[in-house]
Design a protein that fits this description.
single chain; 342 residues; mainly alpha
Length: 342
């Protein structure tokens, strides 16, 4: 299929998903009541989530430093943070493009192999899925209501996500440890392609496997585990503070345990390829608050809309700042995206 047509279909499908989820999220809303809730909200509590979001991204940058350290030592934190924020900004514009932009950005800023950097981004996604499964397992500790009755597919989702994630991660680690097998395969296909293409494939594959080298360095394990825990604790706090913006703590007794449940279930929306999780985040957050905690529909919609907007707008603006300051090229990014689809 033509790469441009493939990209068009991919983004068109993403738009359909976005508006589909938004339709079901806002279905049946009393917009007059919604306006009243939004007008009377205390937005200082909502804005308080943004510094926490930035702190979580700073810690995620710290973790990324350890993941990339076997590839290149002594990288600048500022450059890693810039590449990470630019990647998230691009995900707000074009879903899943950020995973390609981060390696491009750090490759340009730190002269790091883009294939190796891309592998570490994939590892991060594995960590995120594992963290999601752990959060799901913790829900019974803080919630004893009709979880499986409300979301009957949730338990199986967690099981399958765990199995698939561990299987794929295990395969990559095995190939990284047994490069001889990979090299035999590369030598096997070498006679069937041009010499130039063979060198390119060798470089990309072996550099990609370099992105998993951190598994060999056990000295970084503790830092990686610690930063992963800290990231998700900050995410939970970030979900909790805006409860005060809409009086949800006093009216419904929502607490940090509630924030954990909302964070866990709304994380599903991030897996769905829409710009900045727009639509799926709203839907799953609203469903969680209304179905599990009995929150009024308009209050739940207000919470989901405002929390999403704070993160979406803030990261998009900050990412745009770094994008232009570090002289990134949109044409190079789009060309890289097209090359991936070929």
């Amino acid at each position: 299929m033509n790469p441009k047509l493939k990209n068009f279909l991919k983004y068109f499908f993403s738009i359909i998903l976005t508006f589909g989820f938004l339709y079901f999220a806002f279905k049946g809303i009393d917009f007059a009541k919604l306006y009243e809730v939004l007008v009377n909200a205390n937005y200082w509590w909502a804005l308080a989530m943004f510094p926490i979001l930035l702190l979580s991204h700073a810690i995620r940058t710290w973790r990324w430093y350890y993941l990339l350290s076997p590839v290149k030592k002594e990288m600048k934190f500022r450059n890693l943070f810039s590449a990470l924020i630019i990647g998230y900004m691009m995900n707000n514009v074009l879903p899943r493009v950020g995973e390609l932009v981060r390696p491009y950005a750090i490759g340009k800023l730190e002269n790091v192999s883009r294939s190796a950097a891309f592998a570490t981004v994939i590892v991060e996604r594995f960590f995120d899925i594992i963290s999601f499964v752990i959060l799901m397992a913790m829900i019974p500790l803080v919630y004893s209501g009709p979880l499986t009755e409300t979301f009957p597919w949730l338990e199986n989702t967690g099981i399958w996500a765990t199995l698939i994630t561990l299987l794929i991660l295990g395969i990559f680690i095995f190939l990284m440890m047994r490069r001889d097998i990979v090299e035999k395969f590369l030598n096997y296909i070498k006679p069937h392609i041009s010499e130039k293409k063979s060198k390119l494939v060798n470089h990309i594959v072996l550099s990609f496997l370099d992105g998993f080298l951190f598994f060999k360095d056990r000295s970084n394990y503790l830092a990686i585990i610690f930063t992963s825990i800290l990231i998700w604790l900050l995410y939970i706090l970030m979900m909790f503070l805006p409860f005060y913006a809409f009086g949800l703590v006093d009216k419904y007794n929502l607490d940090l345990g509630t924030a954990l449940v909302v964070q866990a279930i709304s994380s599903i929306g991030i897996l769905i390829p829409t710009p900045g999780a727009t639509g799926p985040y709203h839907y799953f957050t609203i469903q969680t608050l209304t179905k599990l905690y009995g929150v009024d529909n308009e209050l739940a919609v207000s919470y989901a809309t405002v929390t999403h907007a704070v993160g979406f707008i803030g990261i998009t603006l900050l990412g745009a700042f770094y994008f232009f300051k570090d002289k990134m090229s949109m044409s190079e990014i789009m060309q890289q995206n097209e090359d991936k689809d070929k």
